[in-house]
Design a protein that fits this description.
Two copies of one chain form a homodimer. With 219 residues, chain A is of the alpha+beta class. Among the domains of chain A are: 4-63, Arc Repressor Mutant, subunit A (Orthogonal Bundle); 155-218, Roll (SH3 type barrels). Helix content of chain A is 41%, strand content 18%. Chain A has helices spanning 4-16, 26-33, 37-49, 65-87, 96-103, 109-118, 166-175, 208-211; strands at residues 53-56, 60-63, 156-161, 182-189, 194-199, 202-207, 214-218. The first copy, chain A, has a five-stranded antiparallel β-sheet. A two-stranded antiparallel ribbon of chain A has the order 1-2. In chain A, strand 4 and strand 5 (194-199) form a beta hairpin. In chain A, helix 1 (4-16) packs across helix 4, helix 2 (26-33) packs across helix 3 (37-49) and helix 4 crosses helix 5 (96-103). The radius of gyration of chain A is 19 Å and the shape is globular. Chain A starts with a helix and ends with a strand. The model of chain A has no long low-confidence stretch (mean pLDDT 93). Bound molecules: manganese (II) ion (4 copies). One manganese (II) ion binds at residues 8, 101, 104-105 of chain B. The site of one manganese (II) ion has 4 residues of chain A, from loops. The structure holds a DNA duplex (30 and 30 nucleotides).
DNA sequence: ATTTACTTTTTGACTACTCAAAGTTGTCAT
DNA sequence: ATGACAACTTTGAGTAGTCAAAAAGTAAAT
């Protein structure tokens, strides 16, 4: 069985890989995992020796099929656990990430299947991130549209929150925006970078960089 | 934060300590934890250095207040998780122990409190083992009566299953006996060691050693 | 073609946990 | 007392994961 360290490393590579071709730099992994660059190099060589990824020295790292499958299973656990914590245990969706970070390594396939059934086989987690299927292990296409790039005045639905840092989740919680919310961009000022949105419960004002972190889809 | 290894060691000491006075032998711990005796000696010295237990060389080991509190918290998590797995996820009560063995180290106090509330603050787990309270951290008094020692012909209630090995759980599952079951001992043959019990759904026959592993209380 | 700055890798060291095998010690039967 | 034996501890070694600091490579700026 892979250790939780190994699972965390592979997951970090997965969520930072745009496509199957691209490599992820060791520096980015060091940053993401909160360890020194030397540690990444050491670990990456060990993971490569185990056939979980390819190390292209001074270039970066790419998952093998096996490594990707393992990482995807971890992501699936993480997102189902988050969904459970929010929907069943009624926890705040801005505090579940940390809990899931530990639980994703302790949940067996058997328990996972039960949770998934209890939740009605959800397609996305509380942040709007897609849950890779049990059999169809594929990751997010993503509409690519955000509040910063969408057509103004059209009816939109918030799909997912791209930035899941604590301060940003805190911020949008106050605006009332969350996955599933209906919104329409009222006005977007190129110069000042202000985006004003109308939503069911009132109005929200955010800056352009913030608007870019909220993925939407036309309805 | 203590590692899960430390938590498992302390828990193993706790559940093998009759009272606060008695010591647990390192050999018993090696057996229980599935490691060599030398490993226990090494770890025990390290735990003693951390103030979690006292090591009396060649005698045994005793938890400190701090070590006992930590171990009790782990037992509480273990038993609440088991209860959750059975009551909410409808898992088989003979397969939840292994799952809880891992989850007990990954559940935060916050999640624990939510689970506890969801379950209605249960007093005992699916095997009948008492759940130490959040504030009143105390462990099982236990009636001490078993199907092997109780008064025959009286109305009894199964309190807990003392032997939780897979084969025994498998066995009593077939008999229909489980915590909460009503039973009456019909006949107990000293010579052959056969104990015949009457229960709601029929009759169960077990050997004396098996009967000793089922704790009951008069109703 | 050098220099500079930045990233990545290497090296040496340390903690936590574990085992196999050798060494001790306490107890109990002679 | 004297062994003999079982239980326990010590020793030496190995894996996994980590860091600090030194070394090496890359690429852009001069
Ligand atoms: Mn994790
Ligand atoms: Mn999420
Ligand atoms: Mn455990
Ligand atoms: Mn139990």
């Amino acid at each position: 069985m892979p250790t939780s360290t190994v699972e965390n490393y592979l997951k970090a590579v997965l969520v930072r890989s745009a496509d199957t071709e691209s490599v992820v730099s060791t520096g980015a992994l060091a940053e993401a995992l909160g360890v020194t660059p030397g540690t990444i190099t050491t670990m990456v060589k060990s993971l490569a020796a185990q056939g979980l990824l390819e190390h292209h020295p001074r270039e970066g790292v790419r998952l093998t099929r096996e490594g990707r499958a393992l990482a995807m299973a971890v992501v699936r656990k993480h997102r189902i656990v988050e969904t459970f914590l929010v929907q069943v245990l009624k926890m705040d969706w801005k505090e579940v990430h940390g809990e899931a970070e530990a639980l994703e390594h302790a949940i067996s396939e058997r328990v996972l299947a039960r949770l998934d059934a209890l939740l009605g086989h959800p397609a996305s987690d509380p942040h709007g991130d897609p849950i890779p299927g049990a059999k169809s292990p594929q990751l997010d296409p993503g509409s690519g549209q955000t509040l910063a790039t969408c057509e103004p005045q059209t009816q939109l639905r918030v799909e997912r929150i791209l930035d899941q840092s604590a301060p940003f989740l805190e911020f949008i919680q106050r605006t009332g925006l969350k996955p599933g919310s209906r919104v329409r961009v009222r006005e977007r000022d190129r110069a000042s970078g202000v985006v004003r949105c109308e939503l069911r419960t009132g109005e929200a004002t955010l800056g352009l960089p913030e608007a870019a972190k909220i993925e939407v889809r036309a309805t």
